Amino acid sequence: MLRDWGSRDPDFVVMTARGRARLLEIAGGSEGYVCVPMQGSGTFAVEATIGTLLPWHGRLLVLVNGAYGKRMQRMAEIMGRAVVVLETPEDEAPSPAALDACLSEDSGITHVAAVHCETTSGILNPIMAIADVVRARGRRLIVDAMSSFGALSCDVEALGCDALVASSNKCLEGAPGLGFAIVRQDALAAAKGNAHSLSLDLQHQEQGFATNGQWRFTPPTHVLAALDQALAEHAAEGGVAGRGARYSENCRLLVTGMRALGFETLLPDRLQAPIIVTFRMPADPRFDFKAFYDRLVARGYVIYPGKLTVADSFRIGCIGRIGTPEIQGALAAIADAMAALGVASGAPGRATVGKMASFA
Ligand SMILES: *Cc1c(COP(=O)(O)O)cnc(C)c1O
Predict the structure, then answer these.
(1) What spacing in Å lies between the alpha carbon of 123 and ligand 1's midpoint?
(2) Which of 68, 121, 169 to mutate to test the pocket of ligand 1 (most atoms within 8 A of CB)?
(3) How does residue 29 score in pLDDT terms, banded at 50, 70 and 90?
(4) For residue 73, what pLDDT is reported?
(5) Distance 135 CA to ligand 1 centre (A)
(6) Residue spans of beta strands (DSSP E) within 212-282
(7) Helix, strand or coil for residue 265?
(8) Per-residue DSSP letter, 283
(9) Per DSSP, which regions of 56-201 are E strands?
(10) 112-128 burial code (b ≥16 CB/10 A, e <16)
């Protein structure tokens, strides 16, 4: 990132092509798919994908069990496209049977949007079963794989999806500032002129790369350089399998250690993705989340407040350049913070519903 790359310079064009090819490879896409990077955070890439692929006469069904499904619904509404929602509680996976019933009832639904790991709770949604239903019903699938891409396998050919969207800064461990979609080439070509936006037009963005290998508008050069290195480190770690194994071990250690301190996870282990874990708020009134959070920050550990509506909670991530020593260090800092606050156990009460962790 310390080198000042010229965005139209041949070296940068080569780096862009290398990144696109490697991302496509990680997604398991061959001839029929293309990787289209998009400036901005992951949300920009999701919005570009929906706005480009969903026809104006189409209808989008969004599977919602958290904030990121809701966000896709909101995008479609703002774009003025027809959208319907199949919602399940945040601690439950969407049901492929309910999806099948929805698609059979509403023949106007052309596209389905689903989140692979819903980062709101950390739940792993059954993306392959969802894809099977969508394919059997002859509809198109868009997958938000933002928080799973690079650590959990999601093969676009096996899913048969029209698009799978992710970003540079989660399991790929790059710097933030860049999203990308792995898109079916025929779906992208058919979407020419469809986008609601000039900058968030995935088809036109791809046309730029196809023409001269360059980005249409100024690219985040430093972010792409960081991603180039991050992708080399991802490959050196053994790709998706290697990275997924490290995160799984992080998750296992974290959950075991937190349970030993009395904490409870929101999700049963069978629904938990090894990405981010939601813990219920302890019942002890001496547990002040802000004070707890500040004590962890002082020790170098940053956690997340809850993002749930079903239960008062906080979250701890398992991803990034961290392993066993960092998880053990975090657990020690958590135990010390509890002792300092006079909290003997992280056990939640039974009546925590409706209260949210916040920085207020
Ligand atoms: C992080 C995330 C997003 C949004 O990404 P931003 O980079 O914050 O815009 C979308 N979907 C999921 C599942 C995510 O985890």
Answers:
(1) 14
(2) 68
(3) confident
(4) 98
(5) 25
(6) 276-280
(7) strand
(8) S
(9) 59-64, 82-87, 111-115, 117-118, 123-124, 140-144, 163-167, 178-184
(10) bbbbbbbbbbbbbbbbe
Q: What is the pLDDT of residue 359?
A: 40
CA of 120 to the centre of ligand 1 (A): 10
Ligand 1 pocket by C-beta < 6 Å: which residues? Answer: 41-43, 68, 115, 119, 144, 146-147, 167
User: Across the strands, what pairs with 280?
Assistant: 313
The SS3 of residue 37 is strand
Answer whether residue 134 shows pLDDT above 50.
yes
The C-alpha atoms of residue 114 and residue 87 are separated, in whole angstroms, by 11
Domains of the chain from N-terminus onward: 10-236 (3.40.640.10), 239-341 (3.90.1150.10)
Threshold 0.85, pTM exceeds = yes
Test site for ligand 1: of 74, 118, 147, 278, most ligand atoms within 8 A of the Cβ: 147
